[in-house]
Amino acid sequence: MKCPQHPVLAHLQRHVRLSASDRNAIEALFQSCRKVKSGRELIRSGAAGKTFAVVEGWIARESLLLDGRQQITALFLPGDVFDLNAELIADCDYSLRAVTDSTVVEISRSQLRRLKDQPRLDEALCWEELEQLAISTEWLVNLGQRSASERIAHLLCEIYLRLRSVGMARDGWCDMPLTQSMIAEVTGLTRVHVSRSLQRLRSEELIHLERGRLRIPDLVRLEEFGLFEANYLHLT
Amino acid sequence: MKCPQHPVLAHLQRHVRLSASDRNAIEALFQSCRKVKSGRELIRSGAAGKTFAVVEGWIARESLLLDGRQQITALFLPGDVFDLNAELIADCDYSLRAVTDSTVVEISRSQLRRLKDQPRLDEALCWEELEQLAISTEWLVNLGQRSASERIAHLLCEIYLRLRSVGMARDGWCDMPLTQSMIAEVTGLTRVHVSRSLQRLRSEELIHLERGRLRIPDLVRLEEFGLFEANYLHLT
DNA sequence: CGTGCCGTTGACGATATTCAAGTGCAGTGG
DNA sequence: CCACTGCACTTGAATATCGTCAACGGCACG
What we know:
2 copies of one chain form a homodimer.
Chain A: H1 7-12, H2 20-29, E1 33-36, E2 41-43, E3 51-56, E4 59-64, E5 70-76, E6 81-82, E7 95-98, E8 102-107, H3 109-116, H4 119-145, H5 148-165, E9 169-170, E10 173-175, H6 180-187, H7 191-203, E11 208-210, E12 213-215, H8 219-225
Antiparallel strand pairs in A: 1-8, 2-7, 3-6, 3-8, 4-5, 4-7, 9-10, 10-12, 11-12
The structure holds a DNA duplex (30 and 30 nucleotides).
């Protein structure tokens, strides 16, 4: 699904109304976009950290354990600006991988400093950080307290609302390019168990999920099932 | 265990060497300390967000589910400065509770802005944010991928190293005021299973834990057991 | 026409939860 | 001084949830 206006601008303006010069400063960044093929890494574990904005596509942050177990610790969707302080890191312990064919912008520390000199942009960027932290906090609750089906239901609610907030979901429909293996890596479950849990959600008519598209016939019911409370996303 | 110098200064100076005026700006904050009794809330769910620095004691961030299940999503130890952008939040979906009798400093948004005008302090504060995010990311891996005993081992390694970085742990000893119920709320397990898992760690001589004190006879062994890799803490 | 990835299914086993009862200890008040 | 209470922790037995192993089908890609 296409985003009506530029997703990064839409995302930044969810809490702060930007001036024309603010918008220009952001748009100037897009002159150096970077395309990344699905499955390729933007940042490899061990490299230096970088700040990104997602113009198009989905990005996953992955952490690898010594024995090969793997966890997706964050998902970045169109419009997200993330890892604002990462340039301080000399060697990352995570990697960033494109879930779909994606377009991103790298933001250097000097560019970031200039953006932060504009008060409204500074505030908008603070909201970005706040959102990332709130989401990862909510994911902790998800992994710690919810059952398998609840975790998946919660994740799908979050994805739907995050996409909707930049105009990329409506009428209960949105893209959902995550494979079941990836859902497993997000939710801390096995592929097999994700498959079974999804079947349960389908059989209870809570979701329809096929060929990379998700349909939620009754969002309220899915939210209740997944003990989902939207306020952590700070949508207005 | 007492911190040799002021824990907040020690913490901020782990990555950045502060000037005398930087240190004065921080010390000025301590004129308005706030004492909180063990078990009391600093911030209640629904209130406005605030920025804090921990002078003394341990603080937990808690999230409550609709059905009463509860998760601790962060622990703040002496020296930590946290929730730097929280003043934007009108109503929190979490609460902050003192684990032990504690002393904290509230930092207002205007104070914060003044601190951020000093470049070294700004950088030190960025490191604080980076650390919080890295820890919550690592906790996601913990909940998603590790077994019960591994989770607890990992948590104890983290606590030990975080305390040691501000001089509050040495020779394998540190404070450990968390009850087993709290460990359960951090690790997403039940109290009962935490009790059994701790017994396993004790029987394998990986830890000695009693009366609020932790002893780790062989840190390397405990780290290996818990698949702990310290680099996410960015200690030098 | 293979090959690899994604998803599904079944049988079985491991891990963690639930329920219930009981201990030790610190603090309280008669 | 001693019962009484609440809290932290422990233990056992039964159960549920989730993981592991293995096999199979469909589909896209070269």
